[in-house]
Amino acid sequence: MTEGTSARFQLASTGTLPTLQVASGWQQVEGKIDTFVVPVFEGENGLELAGGSASVLTSQQEIELWKWLTSVGAQGSAGEMTDLPGEILRSDDDSAQPEITKILAVGLGDVEELSDDDVRQAAGSASRHIGKADTVVSSLSIFNTEAALLGHALGAYAYSGQKSEAKQTIGTVIVLDTEESSELVERVNIIAEAVAFARDLVNAPANDLYPQAYAEIIRDASTEAGLEVEVLDENELREQGFGGIVGVGQGSQNPPRLVRVTYSPAGSSKTSESSDLPEIALVGKGVTFDTGGISLKPGAKMWDMIMDMGGSAAVIAALIAASKLQVKAKITATIPIAENMPSATAIRPGDILRHYGGLTTEVLNTDAEGRLILADAIARACEDEPDYLIETATLTGAQMVALGNRTPGIMGSAAFRDKVTVLSQSVGENGWPMPLPRELDDAIKSDVADLRNISESRWGGMSVAGHYLSHFVSDGVQWVHMDIAGPAYNTGAPYGYTPKRATGVPVRTIIAVVEALAKEGKPAAPEA
Ligand code: BES
Ligand code: MN
Ligand code: ZN
């Protein structure tokens, strides 16, 4: 199926992001300000305002603001939001200060303990608190302008789906800094757009985002970014031996796909021998809907399974961002896409599938489908002999049992796993390292195939899945598996810069990792 035109496959709906700007003073702010955001802290003697070079307020205005805030009981504690009328910041007639309608004081707690992500989360909360505005000017930049911009942008993302009336949100966010920096704004825009793209894909319902449509959307977005794309259809997948993807996809009327997208900046080459750039493989689970198949899931909450392509969405969004950021690495994304449905043509418990590369799996539970399609994709990705393999998937409910809803489980080669964990923490996606204990590997041996897709025991399900995937990774490839079953999709209330539904995790971790690997350069070849 290659005749799909771009017009036929488009997301029915996308979320909004604000326009971002950095300004060094009132002179650069045009028109009136709907909300002026100021940070406040909880000091030993109560509320404190932030001093600092980016401050545009006169000392008289600061005193006035402090008086008002304390008089309404604001304390500056973390998460506190205080609204005040803009009038209290009346200015001299000759000041360049634009008219301010509202002031929002955002509590940041103890200034000594403030992290980058605290700034991001505060900016995100501020954006959500403001909700709807044409122009927001924010001085949350005091410690980290990038974090303030990104938090405001991600918090302002609003997804209205196919409601007749779309939610209104923030038009422009202007963050104050000592100097303007168009590069910084450009960088934050690229990252925010990547997160928004992943969120849009994950938020899309499965009747819009089925395998063919998803593959064409990835093709269009990648082509537009100047990347090379290859899409294998169900016939090509069968001919080339992708038994895991074909097996999982065979129960659906919407046949499966495998999409490969390559970013090769100058200095990279097709053969790993002659390239002087690190080569990175990305793999992401693309199950557009997971009913469980013949091992059918219960009906309650099954609707959340539109998010079961969250790994693949993060991978393609991060790859496009990496290309826009001109990361010095050759990166190839391998994205298996299938819909897991029960039907007369679906795989059954007990079926044996032969994966790309030849390993076989006895399928004892058709709901453990993610690992079946990832096995093929990982084997294919390793054929290119990458230096690193970063794979991510909404793989197991056990991830949430072990770590909760907001903490990705990170498994794989020990040193690389720990490096990815540190970066995941630094961007605020907060992944945590998980072990692959040997005895859990024994539990996926089969009597009639190389592997079975589930263990008999309930325990350690996240690590069991990690072990299963490890069998498809070639020796010498440093790899990580990030289980994002919980973190990819927020079924609860919004918080910080995280909306309801799709979160965009782990887009920013992947971007941070490929940037870090590119900075390190091609790793030394392991001794023979
Ligand atoms: N897509 C699910 C995992 C999942 C569950 C993601 C809940 C997000 C929220 C995956 O395909 C699955 O069904 N896993 C099974 C594996 C089991 C059968 C070994 C699970 O976790 O129950
Ligand atoms: Mn499943
Ligand atoms: Zn699944």
UniProtKB/TrEMBL annotation:
Transmembrane segments: none annotated. Binds 2 manganese ions per subunit. Residues 365-372 form the Cytosol aminopeptidase domain. Mn(2+) 1 binds at residues 290, 367, 369. Its cofactor is Mn(2+). It comes from the Bacteria. It catalyses: Release of an N-terminal amino acid, preferentially leucine, but not glutamic or aspartic acids; Release of an N-terminal amino acid, Xaa-|-Yaa-, in which Xaa is preferably Leu, but may be other amino acids including Pro although not Arg or Lys, and Yaa may be Pro. Amino acid amides and methyl esters are also readily hydrolyzed, but rates on arylamides are exceedingly low. It is found in: Cytoplasm. SUPFAM superfamilies: Macro domain-like (SSF52949), Zn-dependent exopeptidases (SSF53187). Mn(2+) 2 binds at residues 285, 290, 308, 369. PROSITE patterns: CYTOSOL_AP. GO terms for molecular function: aminopeptidase activity. Presumably involved in the processing and regular turnover of intracellular proteins. Catalyzes the removal of unsubstituted N-terminal amino acids from various peptides. Belongs to the peptidase M17 family. This is Probable cytosol aminopeptidase. It comes from Corynebacterium suicordis DSM 45110. The lineage of its organism: Bacteria, Bacillati, Actinomycetota, Actinomycetes, Mycobacteriales. The gene is pepA.
